[in-house]
Amino acid sequence: MDERSSKSEGKEIDEITLRPIELTDVDDFMEWATDEKVSQFCTWDTYTCKDEALDYINNNAILHPWLRVICTKNRAIGAISVTPNSGYLDSCRAELGYVLAYKYWGKGIVTKAVKIVVSNIFEEWPDLERIEAFVDVDNKGSQRVLEKAGFLKEGVLRKFRTIKGRSRDMFIFSILSADTF
């Protein structure tokens, strides 16, 4: 995907762009990845050192089929990914995930990023019919992001995902290629 952008109504953020992650993003990555407020609902543990972050970026994030950093003024302030499901029966589905540095929460940035992704990913992956997102029932902010981006809350998956050693209930949200305009 080429670089995409969206204008923001907020004074702090005039524009966001999405681009592939690079090793040079490590310092920006550390800003959100070391923050326990940011990682509290994530399946990964809070990062504690730059070497771990470099290893993750180099061996996972760069190789991911579709992971982009969310940028303002070309500074990475978060990330968003679409992970295709594997196997013939599940190839029509993919999972959406995102993370944003705490100081940018509540500004509509992730909602804009999700809308950019949805408006393009169904064209990039023509066999994709459904994007799913799994959100901890206590993560109200992420639930609002998806609702504002046009996702439908389908229900609760009980004890669905282990986060920080605890089985958690998750809401499942989705958007279909037929839902987009």
From TrEMBL:
Family annotation (InterPro entries): Acyl_CoA_acyltransferase, GNAT_dom
Superkingdom of the organism of origin: Eukaryota
Any matching Pfam family: Acetyltransf_3
GO molecular function, one term: acyltransferase activity, transferring groups other than amino-acyl groups
Residue ranges annotated for the N-acetyltransferase domain, each copy included: 16-169
Identification of the protein by name: N-acetyltransferase domain-containing protein
Organism of origin: Solanum chilense (Tomato)
